Amino acid sequence: MRWFKPSIFARMIMTAFVIMLGTLVVMGQTGTLPIVYIETDGHRAITSKEYYIPGTYYLVDYQEPDMNIGSAENPMALEIKGRGHSSWKGTKKPYKIKLGEKAPLLGMNANKHWALLKFNEPTIAGFRLGNIMGMDWTPSARPVEVVLNGDYQGIYFLTETNRIGKNRLDIYEQPDLNDDEGSIPYGWLVEVDNYYEKNQIFISENNMWPLRITYHSPEALSSGQRTWLTEEFQRINDAVYNPDKDHSTWEQYIDVDAMARYFIIQEVLDNSDGFHGSFYLHKDWTDDARWVAGPLWDLSCNQRVKTDYTFRMKTSYNFIPHWIGELIKDDDFGAAVVNAWHEFYPDEVQPWMNYIDEHLLPCSEAFEQEKIRWNWTDQQTIAERVTRLKNSLLNNIEWFNNHLPTSGIGSVVVNKEIVKVEYVNMAGMRSSSPWNGVNIKVTTYNDGSISTTKIIKN
Question: Which of 81, 181, 251, 405 is the most buried (most CB within 10 A)?
Answer without folding.
Answer: 405
